[in-house]
Fold:
Amino acid sequence: MSDLLPPIGDLPPNVRASGPGGDATRALVDLLASSECPGLTARRRRREELTGSSHDPIVWAEARGANVVDVDGNRYVDMTGGFGVALLGHGVPEVVAAVQSQAGRLLHALGDVYPSAEKIRLEGRLAALAPWPARVILGLSGADAVEAALKTAMLATGRPGVLAFEGGYHGLSYGALSTCGYKLAFREPFAGQLNPAVRFAPYPSTADSGRALEHVAAVLSEGRTGALLIEPTLGRGGVEPAAPGALATLTALARRHGVLVIADEIYTGLGRTGGLFQSIAMGGDPDVLVIGKALGGGLPVSAAIIREEVAAAWGYPVGEAIHTSTFLGNPLACAAAIASLDVLQRPETAAMIARCAASLERSMRSCLETPGLGVRRMNFAGVLVGVAIDGGLRRALAVCRAMLEQGYIVLTGGVAGDVLTLTPPACLTDAQIAAFSATLAAVLAESHDR
Ligand SMILES: Cc1ncc(COP(=O)(O)O)c(C=O)c1O
Structure:
């Protein structure tokens, strides 16, 4: 931690009067604009055109607990938890200590050939999380683990077809992208290189579940599908939960047709929505559980946890492993994941998440369920919260920018981009929560474009 800054974590925002960023940020953003692939810079300009205010990024320098500090010393409360990674907070001391200790011993090993002890220990810990005997394939990103699950389904069923859902997000590498029903714009430019055997069904949310389940039944009865891939709650797709009973029905349908069920728990899993796996808490019985994000406590590691009898489809190849990568089971990331699981599995952590979720819901309902704010609906699933607002993407972007100016990092989600998507660290204090809710209410009240 910098010697110049006070200890951070539980503090309120502190953004200078001139707004987020400053000279150091501007210099770095200029460098970014001149060096990064132009897609990102152009997107910022488009956002600025839409909302009339700057959409330059802030540049993170330091983060602890729920606080992030930018390179100009402004302090924020991170309501995104770093895309959901910092479920326990940024810079969890146990994770930092494990990484520091590991870094002094072993940074890299030989993945699938001569692994590190940390990789082996982590795989043991992950297999033990499943409610059935399990085998594990590690990855570096969420998309990596989704792809391991899709390959497993191909080997186990011999069928290339995948049934995925509109609004679902599974990552952007080609295998995962082909199943990504979140936005056509992600798939369209690359359509020629994507798996043509992917079909999409409407997501079985409460409103749509009857139609969705009929659609699924019709596709599965064609006999070409090997995998059904679903998020128990659409995360990036707008914090939309599956209807009660839908996951149990989907599992039963899939079993009848010999189709593997892959639950993408990258957002929802490991406690964010309360239990370890939301798909199971909701009555589903998946064959593969995919996790990432919070697993590494800030380091990149993910996993597909596969039923043992299904994993047997990988066989015992005598030659080279047909699924591996240079950094598979990276010791640093595995050490971080073990430390992060140690903390995640403590009873007091579950209590902290439950307390934070309840406080967030209470405070947000009391501040935001008020006529005139243009809030269409709020969905709460533990510390995964969606606030759908009137006024479309334009207003949502303006609200996010106004929140940043007040010191709160908030992102938009949802297919139409009009859902403020909150995946904060569960270590938020009641004071941080109360101040956030009041600030969001004030920003929404002042945002007239609705
Ligand atoms: C549900 C879900 N699956 C998969 C992914 C992809 O993970 P990654 O970005 O680590 O590849 C994400 C990322 O947001 C996600 O939310």
User: Anything to note?
Assistant: Residues 23-91+347-446 form a domain with the Aspartate Aminotransferase, domain 1 fold (CATH 3.90.1150.10). The mean pLDDT is 95. The chain has two domains: 23-91+347-446, 93-344. DSSP finds 16 helices and 17 strands in the chain.
